[in-house]
Amino acid sequence: MSMPGANAPLVFELAPDAEIIAGPWWEHPTDSRYDGITTGLLLLQGLEHGPVGQALSLWSEACLEQIRNLAPPTVPWLESDQEVLTKVLAGWDEADGDLEILKLDHDTFCGIPSADGTPPPEALIDHWMMSAKTRPGRRGPDWPPPEHLRRR
Predict the structure, then answer these.
(1) At residue 5, does pLDDT exceed 90?
(2) N or C end: fewer C-beta atoms under 10 angstroms in the chain?
(3) H helix runs in 5-80, sequence order
(4) C-alpha closest to that of 144 among 152, 136, 132
(5) Is residue 49 over pLDDT 70?
(6) What residues make up the domain containing 58?
(7) What is the pTM of this model?
(8) In whole angstroms, what is the distance from residue 56 CA to residue 129 CA?
(9) How many CB atoms lie within 10 A of CB 56?
(10) First to last CA, the chain
(11) Do 141 and 113 have their domain in common?
(12) What's the mean pLDDT in 132-151?
């Protein structure tokens, strides 16, 4: 995989038969317990019954279990499926199959726009954070900005 420059084409070079899960990897500034895969872009390449398919099944089951038996939060923000996926990937056993996890640069592949809707200049993927829209008092009722304001 080659990393593009700012606002460059998204370029991945992956082996066609590889089992891969790739996504932006966020690192907490002071506590690595909170590091994990985030949304914005999530790439899954693999067979339905291969390691990626198995990881998706485990992720789905873990999300449903979390919904059925809601436990106290494990992070200091609104917990979501990305924390569940991080746990699934952290617990991946080589016996489950050869799975490559690509930790993509967070600021490039999960560009979170400013309050006025301006995406970061280095971002290839604009991430509009649905939780910002649905969480009361977070960004207001007009978030995300209309499509015409989001286009560069």
Answers:
(1) no
(2) C
(3) 51-68
(4) 132
(5) yes
(6) 43-99
(7) 0.77
(8) 22
(9) 16
(10) 26
(11) yes
(12) 61
